[in-house]
Amino acid sequence: MADFDDDDLDAASEEEHAAEQAAQFEAELQRQIALLPPQLYETMQPLLLLGSVASYMLLGHDDDPVPLALKELLSYDLDTLQLVVAAADNHSLARLMAAHTLQLFDFVVVGRLVFESALDEPLRAYLSRHQAPEGGFAGPRQYMLTFGESLLENIAQYLAGTDAELREELHLRRLQTESIFARLDDTLRPYYPPGHSPEEIQAEALDAADEAEDAEEPAVHVTFNAGQRVTLSTALRLPYILAELGETAFGRALGGVRRLRRKALERLAARLAASDAEEPLSLSRSELLRLYQAAQVCALSTVTDVMATGSLEDVMRNAAARSEETAEEIAASAHHAREVLLLLMAGFVEVVEVNHPDDEEIAEAKAEISQLAELLAE
User: Region (Disordered) spans which residues (predicted)?
Assistant: First the structure.
């Protein structure tokens, strides 16, 4: 006769019991789903949407004080939020309400608090850009506060029923969450999906305006030789490199020059590099001004410390130092490169000024870079 291990019997019994409980839970869940109004998800969808956007804006910076405090107090984080976001119809919403009721409670509490915090303004601005559904309620904030409060009362009633002690625990949980927001409101900063921050939206609009301006009728036709095309293409890339490095006040200030935005500079540099040396290059008014200012920046860079590590001559000398040339050869090579670069840049700037002596826009473009150049002397 085979021997039976008591531990095996206990494990089998526990598995059977667990399976029975799961079956009972599923049966009860299906019963509850059948009792729910068919429009439940449709009714709650605006709140779920607004609450999820609010939580994403809050939790995106997950190492910030408020998200860290919420995770410690409530275990509320992006994983918890995903449980709520996954509800996409009546069935999944009912399962959420039955199996993750406390998480839904926290979701609504946090969502309401975000709308009452320093994130309220950027949150509503973001929602307005993406056309959050407003039909049927008086604005997202008021809807979230009003309907959210009503839902919290229903959840508390569902969880606690007549258990006064449990109801008090839920009340305390909510008070502690509110305390986190009250104490740490000044640490809140909005998180945006890539490409959706106000700065990125504004940059996109400015880039579109640059592109439209560059597409206007040509203002001049210029023939460049091969060396000029390569050198001027390099000069067009220098301003945004300096701005992104941000090592000097001059470099940082370049980021605010309207004609030296990266996409416009890259577009013109690519067109210039690909142009035929035998054919005149057509430049719109904005492109001429952009190239003019880039040449001024490059000319300044050859002789002054624009990178907090020296001039372009110093950079070229340091790069050449890794070769087998002598110190004298390296210095001579770098100096010659600087002289050629300066000659080409200054020559182009002079040609523009000589051919447009009374042009106000060119005078203003020159003054803008000259004003920034004063930062190099500080």
Answer: 1-21
174-178 long-range Cβ contacts below 8 angstroms, 24+ apart: 174/109, 176/73, 177/70, 177/73, 177/74, 177/106, 177/109, 177/110, 177/113, 178/109, 178/113
For the beta carbon of residue 367, count every other beta carbon within 10 angstroms: 10
pLDDT digits (tens, 9 = 90+) for 44-80: 999 999 999 999 999 999 999 999 999 999 999 999 9
Render pLDDT for 271-303 as a digit per residue (tens, 0 to 9): 998 888 778 999 999 999 999 999 999 888 887
Q: Which two tokens stand for residue 218?
A: 């040509």
Q: How many residues does the chain have?
A: 378
Task: Give pLDDT tens digits for 243-279.
Answer: 888 778 888 899 899 999 999 999 999 999 888 877 8
What CA–CA distance (Å, rounded) separates 134 from 378? Answer: 53
Contact at 8 Å (CB) between 248 and 306?
yes
Phi, then psi, of 321 in degrees rounded to 5:
-60, -20
Close Cβ partners of 122 (under 8 Å, ≥ 6 residues apart) = 57, 190, 198
pTM: 0.72
